[in-house]
């Protein structure tokens, strides 16, 4: 089963539908442009690894991770996963990483920077797909933990 089909199957019980685009959604800027929304409405999913654990962080496309806040939330120093590590942890290649149906059972941190928007757009397993979802739905679907581990880039 390819990545987008895996995400479709995972999201089907929630009634969420994937948008497939001709344009690349590999980065937050490209996704916002392709979808005609603000960069902050793009929900980027980032994999982080530490000495004893790995986590996924879903945050607004216009933010950067505050390493001190992430360390405090997770309980240890974390670093961004390499592309190979992200693929191994999630089952999705960079540009399509999402918190839906991931390969390994990872804690998911849902950054509340996204609460500014009624709908955000997360990747759906490929670098040309997106799924519109609310922060509340993200929390429910992923079993994620709400947190604040980012700062809006100026």
SSE topology:
Layout: H1 3-11, E1 19-20, H2 28-35, E2 42-49, E3 54-60, E4 63-65, H3 67-74, E5 79-80, H4 83-90, E6 108-111, E7 120-122, E8 129-133, H5 135-142, E9 145-147, E10 150-152
Parallel strand pairs: 2-7, 3-6, 6-9
Antiparallel strand pairs: 1-8, 2-3, 2-5, 4-10, 7-8
Describe the structure.
This protein has 154 residues and is an alpha/beta fold. It has one domain (3-144): YbaK protein, CATH 3.90.960.10. It is built from five helices and ten strands. It has helices at 3-11, 28-35, 67-74, 83-90, 135-142; strands at residues 19-20, 42-49, 54-60, 63-65, 79-80, 108-111, 120-122, 129-133, 145-147, 150-152. Strand 7 and strand 8 form a beta hairpin. The longest helix is centred in the N-terminal third of the chain and has 9 residues, at 3-11. The N and C termini lie far apart (40 Å). The mean pLDDT is 96.
Quote the CATH topology.
YbaK protein
Terminal CA distance: 40 Å
Task: Give the CATH level 1 class.
Answer: Alpha Beta
Task: Please give the share of residues in helix.
Answer: 25-40%
Integer tally of domains:
1
How much β-strand is present in the residues?
25-35%
Q: Give the overall form.
A: globular
Write down the Rg. 14 Å
Proper CATH architecture: Alpha-Beta Complex
What oligomeric state do these chains adopt? single chain
CATH superfamily: YbaK/aminoacyl-tRNA synthetase-associated domain
Low-pLDDT regions: none
N-to-C SSE string, H for helix and E for strand: HEHEEEHEHEEEHEE
The counted number of beta strands is 10
Number of helices: 5
Structural class: alpha/beta
- The pLDDT mean sits at 96
């Amino acid at each position: 089963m390819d990545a987008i089909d895996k995400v479709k199957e995972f999201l089907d019980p929630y009634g969420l539908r994937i948008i497939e685009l001709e344009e690349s959604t590999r980065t937050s800027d490209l996704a916002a442009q392709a979808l005609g929304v603000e960069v902050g409405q793009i929900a980027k999913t980032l994999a982080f690894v530490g000495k004893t654990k790995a986590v996924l962080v879903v945050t607004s496309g216009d933010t950067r991770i505050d390493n001190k806040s992430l360390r405090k939330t997770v309980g240890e120093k974390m670093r961004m996963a390499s592309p190979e590590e992200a693929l191994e942890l999630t089952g999705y290649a960079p540009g399509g990483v999402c918190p839906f149906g991931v390969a390994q059972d990872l804690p998911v941190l849902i950054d509340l920077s996204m609460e500014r928007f009624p709908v955000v757009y997360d990747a759906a397993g490929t670098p040309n797909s997106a799924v519109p979802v609310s922060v509340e739905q993200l929390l429910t679907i992923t079993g994620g933990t709400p947190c604040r581990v980012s700062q809006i880039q100026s």
